[in-house]
Structure formats: structure tokens, C-alpha cells
Amino acid sequence: MHDETWHLCRCAACHSLYLDPRPDAESLPRAYEAYYTHEEIKDSPSTSGLGGLLGRLVQGYLNHRFGMVRQPASRWGVAVFHALPPLRQKLDYYGRHLYPSDFPQRGRLLDVGCGNGSFLARAAEMGWQVNGLDPDPAAVAVCAGQNLHVVQGTLRDAPAGWTGQFDVVTMSHSIEHVTDPGLELNRVFGLLRPGGVLWLACPNPDSLGSRVYARVWRELHPPYHLVIPSARQLSRLLLDAGFVGPVPLRRGAHARRMMRESAENARHAGGVSMQARALLAPLIRVMADVVASVVPGGAEETVIMARRPVQP
């Protein structure tokens, strides 16, 4: 499956991308047999030298911003990262913008497509009661090894007892793995309490990297990504599902890996045009990070929050 040629099409009306044809339901699971979500990831910064200083500053900011209690930490991190918006926005993304000032009681959180549970463990540090959902049995096993409560399956398999029970649902790079994003958002809406919040991130098909690198852009990632909705289409689908106030967020510095791997793809593709794009990767990365820090929804990935209305 990995050596085959895949074709992605762009919708002329909304700019979303979609895979055509798609792998069938029987063959697609084979692609996930060695997926990166099968390994536990530890959030453990360096403790010595310059890396140790940076780690203490980061943890000081996270403790202040998200109510964590990580150590060692420096309170100077709050001032340092407030003075550096691209890095502050990157750390705010790390906590999925779930500030205690907005959620003083925390409550119940569901991470859809939770993978190895790295964010679930982080959210528990932040004071949330966490649940996860993932179709991959290997990823679920990794979560079980960390004593995280994760159900194997998709939103279609969500337990009946979850209906209307969550204060927050997060979906980090999972919506692009499903065939019908609108249906998934309808299901998420049903899991949220009135006033509950959805946080969602997915690749941005209108990003600078997508436009420069086109068919070798790292975030295309076939055959895993079946539909990559544009920010415009996501907002429409959210409103159609009943959500209110979809708000795109700034992503901050984030494009290093995307541009490096896109450049590698360009070099592998060959040709004068692709080689030139590979050489320009450092400049494109800087430009992408600037755009992501200034323009809400302008990053290599779309980050958006929406809310279920308090009143029906």
C-alpha cells in the first residue's frame, strides 16, 4: 500500500482536498500496523545546560498558563514567553488552548483519535478527567499501559453513556482520517454538554507550504488522510452540526518539521522546480511561522474552537 500512487483532488468551491480513489475498509487498517501512535512518548525536557534552562522556562510557563505542577520550573518563563509570541502560541497549542481561566472547574475531556495517549496524560496533569477514543488496538494498548481510560473504536462506537457528558472534546489530526467529516462533527456535538467546547486541529490545504510544495507537501500523507477540509469548509460543517462561534486560532512557530520533510520529498521527486523548492525550505519555514503567528487560521494546520450552544 505504501508504494502505490495516490491521487488527491481539490474542491474548486471550498479548496478542501480528498483522496480519490480511496482504500477500502478492509485494506486501510493495514496501513496503521506500524503507525507512530504505537509508542509511548515521554514529556521530559533536558535538565542540564542550555536545554535545561529552556526546559525550566517552558515548564514555568505551562504551570502558570495551564495549572500544571511540573518541576523543575522557573517563573521567569511567563515573562520570557509573553515577550516571544510565536513561541508562546506554540506552548498554548501544546495545552490545546484549555486555559483554567476559561475552564475553572475543568470537568470531563474526551480526546478523539487519542493515539498513544500523550495528550490525555497532559490533560490529566492540567486537572481534567480524561477519556480517550481510538480505533487502533495497538495504540489503545499503549494507553492501557499508562492507566488511561481509552475505548477502542470510532465515534460511531462511543458508549451510549457518553452522550452529553463532556465539557471538552479534542480532535488533533483525526478528522482528516475519516470519510465523512460532517457526520463526525455531528457525533461530537452529541457527546458535548450544553456549552461544551470542541477543539480541533488538522492540516490546512490553503497554507503556504501546501501552495509551495503542492504534491510533495508533507501533510498530504496518503493513504491515511482521506479528506483534508479547508478552514472555510470546517466552519461550515461546524455550523451545520449545530455549533456556534467557530474561531480559528494562531498556531505560532511550528513549521520546522513540515518544511524539512516537504523539502526531502521535493528532492526525492527530482526536477529543477522541486530542487529549487527544497533549497528554499528554510526561508519558507520562517515565512510560514510568521504567518502562523499573525494570521488566525493561517498556519500549516488549521486550529479551530467551537461551542455547543447552552440553549437548544
Task: Characterize the structure shown.
This protein has 312 residues and is of the alpha/beta class. It has a single domain (84-307), classed as 3-Layer(aba) Sandwich (Rossmann fold). Helices cover 37% and strands 17% of the residues. It is built from 11 helices and 10 strands. It has a 7-stranded mixed β-sheet with strand order 5-4-3-6-7-10-9, sandwiched between helices. α6 (181-191) links the parallel β6 and β7. α9 packs antiparallel against α11 (281-294). It is globular and about 55 Å long. The model has no long low-confidence stretch (mean pLDDT 92).
How are the elements arranged and paired?
Layout: E1 8-10, E2 17-19, H1 49-66, H2 76-82, H3 85-94, E3 108-112, H4 118-125, E4 129-134, H5 137-144, E5 150-152, E6 166-172, H6 181-191, E7 192-203, H7 208-213, E8 227-228, H8 231-241, E9 244-248, H9 256-269, H10 272-279, H11 281-294, E10 301-307
Parallel strand pairs: 3-4, 3-6, 4-5, 6-7
Antiparallel strand pairs: 1-2, 2-8, 7-10, 9-10
Helix pairs in contact: 1-2, 6-8, 9-10, 9-11
Element pattern in H and E: EEHHHEHEHEEHEHEHEHHHE
Give the structural class.
Answer: alpha/beta
Highest-level CATH class = Alpha Beta
CATH superfamily: Vaccinia Virus protein VP39
Strand content: 15-25%
| CATH architecture descriptor | 3-Layer(aba) Sandwich
- Give helix % range: 25-40%
Q: In terms of per-residue confidence, which ranges show pLDDT below 50 for 5 or more consecutive residues?
A: none
Distinct helical segment count: 11
Distance between the termini: 45 Å
Per DSSP E runs of 2 or more residues, the count of β-strands stands at: 10
Strand order of the largest sheet: 5-4-3-6-7-10-9
The domain tally reads 1
Radius of gyration: 19 Å
Largest sheet: 7 strands, mixed
